[in-house]
Predict the structure.
Amino acid sequence: MPRNPQLYEAILRGNRPAAQELTRQAVADGLDPLGIVNDTMIPALHELGEQFSAKKIGLPDLLVGARAMQSGVDLLEPLLLKDQRAPRVRVCIGTVKGDRHDIGKRVVSIVLRAAGYDVDDLGSDCGVERFEQAVEAGARAVLCSALITRVTPYMKTVVDHVSDRPDIPVLVGGSAVTAAFAEKIGAAYAADAADTVRLLDELLAVGP
């Protein structure tokens, strides 16, 4: 059950004004910005992704819902970055080839920056070569995101291309990704933005 059912429903319905106002109200009520993201917004995005994969909604509905969530994230971004730590380690993140949706990835990027990571945001529809270039430029971890199920096999392609660098962990996440799938392709699974920070801190032995 989402922490804020009204905001959750506003995102599912693609009601941008309501999503903005409910996000603003949640902040005014003293709720933690990261908690709003992880406990309400990300679950709503996951639900949209599942409904799209099950063909219960179409691409326009998915995009409208994602944009409603984006409107709330825009309000939270300054708060999430307010106490940003000095950058410690560089990582790269991108939505994999065939998927042009980047709202979930953008949320993770913001939270990583707040946690003190130097984030190379590669954008959406990323082919292997973009991840490889980021690693060559100094990224110490590769993060792949996917909102729609049909593009997840490409994550295995990314893992295979990075496999000659065992010192570079690959993390996968997004509405279309499960822990079982991540294990199958040899990647680490990040359930949400906070989990991504925790995993990177462990895998890269990054201290506070």
